[in-house]
């Protein structure tokens, strides 16, 4: 393998892939490019059920939603103007549309949304409407395979070999040490580790004295209902996002990752099992599922919200024998655990058959449980049936957001020149659209410095 490259990208998730695509689009074969990915190729991932690491990152097995608004999916508007982020999202969406012609675009009718916003306000909910391009969990891997075919014609791709250390000399990025001990040098280093490599990135940034800011951790439940309960709303907005301020604790409770006629799944994050939801373009269930999440943002002296979220998830794993817990809402209201017999009596048939009936109040902190119940009651006023005794709740749904690296608007670390950190693993984004956009920003910065940006 060559030892010297113009650009080294660590991580082949959406942010790293879009950085490579942007470089290749503007300067094909003018910059030598190496992509290093800890996990395997996507076909091997499917066979071995590796959901977080490998070509495509966590996005390869996500629901495949491109959320077309700067207001959701990350924190780019903290460092860039809203309109600039909007243009970037439109740009990356055009590329996703080329990579996935099978995807479905979901606009919305403004009059229908305005009426829904009025209903939401009457229930003390805030509706955030946005458009969606939905790849589906079945089509996202196809799109990422197409991206790989483009990239591998112009770049060296090294799979199943992660990075061990980032090399810096005189406050300038110099290269990386691979896990097998090889050293490769690069003029520009782009770190796109994804959620799977977030802990490694945090350790490296601390070693290199790069500033970090603590992001929150989102903890809550995955809710599953008969699809008819939400059909009216999901036909107006494919992914309705509601915000609710719980009256007891004044916490923000938000809906997240709505999957019309989708499936509840498990997801492994290092040593814990959590819940998630998928929906497919080609396969439908009789249910709709979504997450209800509460953000926990900690102050001094505690600096490890990821460990806190993992602790909550481990409680569910402990009580369920290494799986996730499921409870009927009616049982939770009455202060009793769900049993297999009570789950079978529900008119909502679980799409996650391996979930273990139990009592989620033994897992979630009291303030989270109270906020979730208050939010479900409020949502019931907008879409009657959500607060039904038959509604199913799975725990734990946890969204881990990495510590945010102290970067410039060009995605370059302030402490180390020519070192860029992008995507979810760098704490900048939390979704496909903004993750992809961060890759484009870093690539354009490099291209501009090399006078190759078209």
User: pLDDT under 50 segments (min length 5)?
Assistant: none
Query: Structural class of the helices, strands and pairings?
Result: alpha+beta
Question: What distance lies between the first and last C-alpha atoms, to the nearest angstrom?
Answer: 30 Å
**Major sheet, described briefly?**
8 strands, mixed
Strand order of the largest sheet: 5-13-14-17-12-20-18-19
The total beta strand count reads 22
Radius of gyration: 22 Å
Percent range for β-strand residues: 25-35%
The best one-word shape is globular
Q: Kindly state the mean pLDDT as a whole number?
A: 94
Instruction: Compute the number of helices.
Output: 12
The portion of residues assigned to helices is 25-40%
Your description of this structure?
The protein is α+β, with helices and mostly antiparallel strands. It is built from twelve helices and 22 strands. Strand 1, helix 1 and strand 2 form a beta-alpha-beta unit. Helix 1 crosses helix 5, helix 1 runs parallel beside helix 12 and helix 3 crosses helix 12. The two termini are about 30 Å apart.
Short précis:
The chain is of the alpha+beta class and 454 residues long. The protein has helices at 14-26, 42-48, 82-99, 110-122, 140-152, 198-207, 227-234, 305-319, 329-333, 340-345, 366-382, 432-449; strands spanning 4-10, 33-37, 65-68, 104-106, 125-128, 131-134, 156-159, 163-169, 172-178, 183-191, 212-213, 217-226, 241-245, 252-259, 263-269, 272-278, 287-296, 325-328, 356-357, 392-400, 404-405, 419-421.
Descriptive terms for the model:
454 residues; alpha+beta; 7-stranded mixed beta sheet
């Amino acid at each position: 393998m060559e030892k010297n490259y113009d650009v080294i990208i660590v991580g082949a998730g959406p942010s790293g892939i879009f950085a490579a695509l942007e470089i290749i689009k503007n300067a094909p074969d003018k910059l030598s490019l190496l992509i290093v990915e800890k996990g395997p190729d996507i076909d091997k991932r499917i066979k071995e059920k590796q959901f977080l690491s490998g070509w495509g990152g966590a996005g390869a097995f996500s629901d495949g939603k491109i959320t077309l608004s700067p207001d959701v999916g990350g924190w780019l508007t903290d460092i860039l103007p809203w309109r600039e982020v909007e243009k970037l999202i439109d740009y990356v969406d055009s590329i996703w549309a080329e990579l996935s012609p099978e995807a479905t675009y979901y606009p919305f009718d403004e009059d229908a949304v305005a009426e829904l916003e009025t209903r939401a306000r009457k229930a003390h909910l805030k509706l955030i409407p946005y458009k969606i391009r939905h790849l589906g969990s079945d089509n996202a891997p196809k799109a990422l395979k197409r991206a790989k075919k483009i990239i591998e014609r112009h770049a060296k791709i090294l799979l199943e070999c992660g990075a061990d250390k980032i090399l810096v000399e005189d406050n300038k990025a110099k290269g990386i040490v691979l896990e097998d001990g090889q050293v490769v040098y690069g003029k520009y280093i782009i770190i796109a580790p994804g959620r799977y490599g977030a802990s490694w990135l945090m350790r490296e940034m601390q070693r290199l004295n790069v500033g970090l800011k603590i992001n929150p951790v989102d903890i809550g439940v995955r809710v599953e209902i008969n699809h008819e309960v939400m059909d009216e709303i999901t036909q107006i907005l494919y992914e309705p996002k509601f915000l609710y301020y719980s009256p007891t604790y004044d916490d923000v409770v938000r809906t997240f990752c709505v999957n019309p006629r989708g499936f509840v799944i498990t997801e492994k994050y290092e040593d814990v099992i959590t819940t998630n939801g998928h929906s497919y373009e080609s396969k439908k269930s009789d249910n709709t599922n979504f997450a209800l999440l509460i953000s926990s943002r900690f102050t001094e002296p505690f600096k490890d919200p990821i460990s806190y979220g993992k602790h909550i998830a481990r409680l569910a794993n402990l009580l369920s024998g290494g799986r996730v817990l499921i409870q009927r809402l009616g049982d939770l209201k009455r202060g009793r655990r769900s049993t297999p017999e009570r789950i079978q009596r529900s008119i909502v048939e679980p799409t996650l058959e391996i979930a273990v009936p139990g009592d989620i109040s033994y897992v979630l902190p009291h303030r989270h449980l109270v906020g979730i119940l208050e939010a479900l009651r409020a949502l019931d006023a907008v879409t009657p049936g959500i607060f039904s005794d038959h509604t199913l709740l799975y725990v734990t749904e946890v969204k881990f957001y990495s510590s945010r690296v102290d970067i410039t608007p060009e995605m370059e670390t302030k402490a180390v020149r020519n070192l860029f950190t992008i995507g979810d693993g760098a704490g900048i984004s939390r979704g496909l659209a903004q993750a992809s956009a961060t890759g484009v920003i870093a690539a354009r910065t490099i291209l501009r410095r090399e006078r190759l940006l078209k």
